[in-house]
């Protein structure tokens, strides 16, 4: 689950990470009120207005703008709210901005120049350790830095059993070229960031830029936070942070009915019971020259109602040319699944315009095949895996 910048910052702040302070607003009037409230706490009338969408590169696309007074702020907020923001990370048509973060300006002049760094925390699956990636080259596209100057990107691996050791935090501050108060503040920042990563069951933090202000404070100016969906059950407090308008509507609907569904780009709809079989089925489709349109695990209880719901979800994808149902009847009997498929088909009527290939194996598979073959519907049955693949191939040819 991805968070908006303002939600990510709020969460980080709760773990003691220093952040650029801000207030979220849905209208220009709310933005003005937010700016006035911030000024009371920060003393500055300069604010940045930042579009809140689940995509980075907002600065480049015109979604982050500095306002030097309230009049400017009202105009800028009015322009950004409701705009269709296009960045290198959005779909080509962009994303609609529903809210902005009004934040204190933290690039104020002072004793030294502000400096921008890059920092992320993530899991290194190859080593089974957590990793802090960081660079002196903050504020810009990190992929471009990795391409042109890979020696300027550092990594620090953290053993999850030991946690972040103090010497590691010092090493990071040192490699970033810091000294004095900024050095000390960076070690605190890094420790708090790692504590937040562990405490929130996150799978990715990307803070770009981390800023050293002109008076040597280290703060998070941006925050991309991805929480691990498998850890969410431990965090009821994060439930309200989900923004459904940013998610794939079919995946949202599937989650609501307890089906495990992931939208993909291909044209062969899949309905399978069990995640392992679902993946094997997707491999099979690929081998037959097709491309799966989705991953869909209907789970252990593939009754008529579930099969019908699954059909409905798959049919929402206009790219689907054929549906392959691959069910292993272990606990659930094949004839009951077959009956479910026939019933669902009849209920959906004209909604199904594509051929359906069904492979049922396991308990009562023969009765199931009989049921499908005698149903008179546009459903082809297959017994062997390869037979099912061949029929998929024919259907998409
Ligand atoms: P992104 O473009 O989506 O990654 O959004 P960021 O939150 O990283 O903001 C983009 C850029 O806006 C930053 O790299 C800064 O250069 C600039 N920016 C952010 N906050 C401030 C601020 O308080 N004052 C000024 N002057 N610029 C800011
Ligand atoms: Mn950024």
The whole-angstrom Rg is 26 Å
Tally of domains: 3
End-to-end separation? 38 Å
- H and E string: HEHEEHEEEEEHEHHEEEHEEHEHEHEHEH
CATH architecture of the largest domain: 2-Layer Sandwich
Characterize the largest beta sheet: strand count, sense, and whether it forms a barrel: 6 strands, antiparallel
What is the approximate shape? elongated
- Residues in β-strands, percent: 15-25%
User: Unreliable stretches, pLDDT < 50, 5 or more residues?
Assistant: none
Bound molecules: guanosine-5'-diphosphate, manganese (II) ion
Helix content: 25-40%
Structural class: alpha+beta
Overall pLDDT confidence: 93
CATH class of the largest domain: Alpha Beta
CATH H-level superfamily of the largest domain: ATP-grasp fold, B domain
The number of helical runs is 12
Descriptive overview:
The protein is an alpha+beta fold and 397 residues long. It folds into three domains: 1-19 and 108-246, 2-Layer Sandwich (D-amino Acid Aminotransferase, Chain A, domain 1); 21-105, Dna Ligase, domain 1 (2-Layer Sandwich), CATH 3.30.1490; 248-396, Succinyl-CoA synthetase domains (Rossmann fold, 3-Layer(aba) Sandwich), CATH 3.40.50.261. 36% of the residues lie in helices and 24% in strands. The strands form five sheets. Strands 7, 8, 9, 10, 11 and 12 form a six-stranded antiparallel sheet that branches. It has a four-stranded antiparallel sheet with strand order 1-6-2-3, with helices on one face. It is elongated and about 85 Å long. Bound molecules: guanosine-5'-diphosphate and manganese (II) ion (MN). Manganese (II) ion binds next to loops.
């Amino acid at each position: 689950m991805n968070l908006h910048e303002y939600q990510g910052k709020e969460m980080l702040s709760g773990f003691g990470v220093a952040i650029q302070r801000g207030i979220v607003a849905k209208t220009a009037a709310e933005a003005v009120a937010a700016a006035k409230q911030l000024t009371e706490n920060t003393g500055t009338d300069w604010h940045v207005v930042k579009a809140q969408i689940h995509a980075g590169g907002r600065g480049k696309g015109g979604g982050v703008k500095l306002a030097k007074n309230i009049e400017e702020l009202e105009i800028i907020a009015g322009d950004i709210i409701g705009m269709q923001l296009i960045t290198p990370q959005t779909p080509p048509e962009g994303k609609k901005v529903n809210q902005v973060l009004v934040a204190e300006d933290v690039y104020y002049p002072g004793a030294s120049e502000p400096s921008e760094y890059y920092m992320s925390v993530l899991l290194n699956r190859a080593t089974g350790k957590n990793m802090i990636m960081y660079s002196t080259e903050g504020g810009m596209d990190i992929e471009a830095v990795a391409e042109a100057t890979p020696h300027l990107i550092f990594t620090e691996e953290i053993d999850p059993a030991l946690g972040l050791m103090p010497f590691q935090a010092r090493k990071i501050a040192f490699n970033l070229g810091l000294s004095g108060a900024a050095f000390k503040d960076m070690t605190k920042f890094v420790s708090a960031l790692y504590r937040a990563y562990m405490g929130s069951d996150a799978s990715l933090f990307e803070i770009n830029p981390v800023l050293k202000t002109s008076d040597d404070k280290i703060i998070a100016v941006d925050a991309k936070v991805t929480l691990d969906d498998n850890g969410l059950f431990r965090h009821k407090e994060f439930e309200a942070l989900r923004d459904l308008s940013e998610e794939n509507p079919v995946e949202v609907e599937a989650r609501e009915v307890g089906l495990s569904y992931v939208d993909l780009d291909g044209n062969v709809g899949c309905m399978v019971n069990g995640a392992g079989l679902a993946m094997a089925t997707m491999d099979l489709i690929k081998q037959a020259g097709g491309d799966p349109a989705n991953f869909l695990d209907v789970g252990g209880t593939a009754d008529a109602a579930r099969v019908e719901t699954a059909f409905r979800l798959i049919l929402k994808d206009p790219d689907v040319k054929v549906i392959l149902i691959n069910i292993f009847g272990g606990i659930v009997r094949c004839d009951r699944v077959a009956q479910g498929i026939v019933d669902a088909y009849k209920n959906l009527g004209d909604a199904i315009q594509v051929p359906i290939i069904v492979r049922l194996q396991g308990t009562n598979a023969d009765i199931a095949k009989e049921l499908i073959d005698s149903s008179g519907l546009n459903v082809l049955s297959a017994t062997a895996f390869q037979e099912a693949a061949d029929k998929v191939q024919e259907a998409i040819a």
